[in-house]
Amino acid sequence: MSFAIDPHSLGYLLHHTTSVHRRVMAQHTKAFDITPEQYGVLLQLRTAEGISQKRLSEKMHKDQATVGKMIDKLEAKALVQREADPADRRAFLVHLTDTGSQVVDGLMQDSTQVHEQAVAGIAPEEFDIFIKVMQQLYNNLSQDALHD
Amino acid sequence: MSFAIDPHSLGYLLHHTTSVHRRVMAQHTKAFDITPEQYGVLLQLRTAEGISQKRLSEKMHKDQATVGKMIDKLEAKALVQREADPADRRAFLVHLTDTGSQVVDGLMQDSTQVHEQAVAGIAPEEFDIFIKVMQQLYNNLSQDALHD
DNA sequence: AACATATAATATGTATACTTATTATATGCA
DNA sequence: TGCATATAATAAGTATACATATTATATGTT
Description:
The structure is a homodimer. The first copy, chain A, has helices at 9-29, 36-47, 53-59, 64-76, 98-119, 124-142; strands at 51-52, 80-84, 92-96. Chain A is mainly alpha-helical. Chain A has one domain: Arc Repressor Mutant, subunit A. Chain A has a 3-stranded antiparallel beta sheet with strand order 1-3-2. Chain A is globular, with a radius of gyration of 18 Å. The interface between A and B is large, with 62 and 62 residues. Chain A binds a DNA duplex through residues 19, 23, 26, 35, 37-38, 52-54, 62-66, 68-70, 73, 85, 88-92.
């Protein structure tokens, strides 16, 4: 195995690129008075309306406690709503409110802009390889990390 | 621009892969009673012995307050040491202790293992493209994000 | 020297992210 | 049915991560 990069810098590259992506997204989400993580919740709900906090935490690869807190904040801002699950009295089903839907719709446009900014000057074939490698890294690292 | 992936999923891919990488590293750093972020500090100090917290925060792309807190914790564990900067009474110079050096040395080996686990089955040429694309994404996104 | 401005570190407050424990409710099985 | 076990959500505690403010010290200008 003779890769060009120092093995210790894979972590740096992942973390720094992810951080800067978050910071750019934060500049956009700020206008809607939410964080990028909260946008992530709204985006999931858009295509998974009425799922439980448990399922949501699995889909987002975050633990239940974290997602629960985020739902608290989003509910306080009236962007989502908790509904008692009629089939399981331990669970809540989470719904987007109308305002919540409007916020996601607005931010999806910003998100597309950020994507275009991010991939500027990158050849499509290379970007495809990048995606494939990222998925492989994820799969390789997931083998012994606990997740859904 | 017709990339294969949904523009909204670039963030997911970055965040999830970075998270899983952190979780795997955490399994290793735990044996040394530190976090992956604290390992990052020690690793930087290894090649930049005696730099200020300010410089350290710049090299790590984190803000000074965050790095200051991490130094507090590492100092409490006797892995690093603060020294008054003789040339600037506002500043501290941060040093690895002997124990700190041993911890980095041990974890660098673990880190190499994690790297190998991560890149298993990935063709070197594709990994090179991956690195290049990551760097381009970083550069593109850094244009309007504040950083060093 | 005196003063305005910049800078290094710290303090404070908010928001993830994860661990462990707790509570209420489900579910499987005797 | 009754009980052991599993599960959904929450609570409490620790550690980033960042924004804003504060304090002490430097530095530039007059």
